[in-house]
Design goal:
By secondary structure, the protein is mainly α. The chain contains 10 helices and no strands.
């Protein structure tokens, strides 16, 4: 498992952040299908801000959980596709435009409490993490605009998870790799062959996070929000 920064484009970052959040909320390592990637690609080209997509997806799952709590006898179908969230995202985007919101590149730095979110991410690191205090310092010292901070966090996230993977006991590393391979087998016929090595790496990172309780290092991750932040 390598720790180098992903050479992908901004489009790939946009897609992968959406996929990470969708997988986290669904609670299972189900990767986005090619149709889902095309849907996200459409949002990207329309200019739908990433934070708007993520917040819409979260609301869909929150409302679903509320319905389940109110009527536990009703069985709900598993959410197996990002398309389930499409109406919520497109409604939010329409409202966003009707309000005359400024372009996200200008809004994002002032709308996001960057130091606060970095502090929340630092606090979310598990105390059992090797060099946890050093990592907390590195996170809180990241500076720049929100897009610059997010780019740096992506690099640190890869480094953090790669180091955590390398620090696992051999048996635990084997278990993580086996889990990633098992999840990939479930994508047979639904994912382009050339994407499989990349997807395996991302599944490995996902499973390492779950095993060690590591937060996703992103300003848009749920763990980056303070308790009083909407």
């Amino acid at each position: 498992m390598t720790s180098g920064a992903d050479p992908g484009s901004r489009d790939r970052d946009y897609f992968e952040t959406i996929e990470e959040e969708f997988i986290r909320l669904r609670g299972a390592p189900l990767l986005l299908s090619p149709a889902d990637w095309r849907l996200a690609d459409g949002w990207r080209h329309q200019g739908v801000p990433l934070h708007l997509v993520l917040e819409s997806i979260r609301r869909v799952f929150e409302r679903r959980a509320e319905r389940q709590a109110a009527s536990p006898e009703l069985k709900q179908r598993n959410v197996s596709s990002l398309r389930y969230c499409r109406p919520a995202v497109e409604k939010a985007w329409a409202e966003y435009r009707e309000l005359g919101a400024a372009p996200p590149v200008r809004r994002q730095p002032s709308a996001i409490d960057v130091p606060g979110r970095l502090g929340a991410l630092a606090s979310a690191l598990p105390p059992t993490l090797a060099d946890v205090e050093l990592w907390r310092s590195r996170l809180t010292e990241v500076g720049g605009s929100a897009p610059e901070v997010e780019a740096r966090l992506a690099e640190l996230d890869l480094e953090l998870v790669a180091g955590a993977f390398d620090g696992l006991a051999p048996a635990d590393r084997e278990a993580v790799l086996a889990g990633a391979d098992e999840a990939l087998r479930g994508t047979a016929g639904r994912v382009d062959e050339e994407r499989l090595p990349e997807l395996r790496q991302r599944l490995v990172r996902r499973l390492v996070r779950e095993r060690l309780g590591l937060p996703l290092l992103s300003l848009f991750a749920e763990t980056a929000r303070s308790p009083g932040e909407s």
